[in-house]
């Protein structure tokens, strides 16, 4: 049976890194980072662009799910509200597919440490720290399996998810 992994978490929790590990760990896997469906300059958040990114994500995921070459479809995005997850899943053809929804969480200290490294490296703007901390508690309320990444390597987290 095909598996669809939907992995959410706040910025800096390790979604993309963990999913890249998971992709190499599981057989016949493909990975979509939701950010790739909305990589624009300038980055604009409007009703129109929010609707567009959901359509883009669902089109790619449905293509992956329909492709017999893939047993494991891995998707990650921020998804801090249950309605976002539900909307995406409702648009997918998941017949014959096991859907595994996961929220990556970590301690506030770990999150700040990771994000400070990214800011210092120039890969994120400094305002991400406050925004990410604000979203962190929202993931505990979602109807997802929680995986705490605090003190774990991406490989360790990916192994935990692969076992679900």
From TrEMBL:
InterPro entries in UniProt: P-loop_NTPase
Stored SUPFAM superfamilies: P-loop containing nucleoside triphosphate hydrolases (SSF52540)
Domain of life, per lineage: Bacteria
Pfam families: AAA_18
Stated name of the protein: AAA family ATPase
